[in-house]
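Exercise 7b. Backbone tokens:
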């Protein structure tokens, strides 16, 4: 999946996630669908419009027995920071939006759901 490029099919919010609720800056950012997500650990950082291009630059795997999952670390083509020091945004299956198609046992990582994302062929 690393290196593959996609576009967004709909507008999405970018939310900052704080591990320490006292912090003013997020530890990382994640993409969320409508209506969004709330709580003291989240900061709304902006949005990305439909048609925005991004590429997968990394993969984070959560091996927790309670909340296992995968997050793709993506970078949007505009290259702008979404918060001081944060250019990368995570797309995760843990927030309930169904961004990933469920992983089969023989797959290394789940595919992004074509309901939200369109794959871009190399060279397009």
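Sequence design result:
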């Amino acid at each position: 999946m690393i290196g593959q490029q996609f576009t967004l099919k709909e507008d999405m919010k970018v939310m900052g996630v704080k591990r320490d609720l006292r912090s003013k800056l997020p530890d990382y950012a994640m993409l969320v669908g409508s209506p969004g997500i709330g709580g003291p650990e989240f900061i709304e950082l902006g949005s990305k419009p439909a048609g925005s291009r991004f590429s997968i630059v990394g993969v984070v795997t959560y091996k927790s027995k309670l909340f296992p999952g995968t997050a793709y670390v993506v970078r949007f083509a505009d290259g702008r920071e979404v918060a001081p020091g944060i250019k990368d945004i995570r797309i995760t299956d843990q927030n309930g939006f169904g961004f990933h198609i469920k992983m089969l046992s023989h797959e290394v990582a789940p595919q992004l759901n074509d309901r939200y994302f369109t794959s871009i062929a190399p060279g397009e």
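Instructor comment: The chain has no helices and eight strands. Residues 84 and 94 are 25 Å apart (CA to CA).
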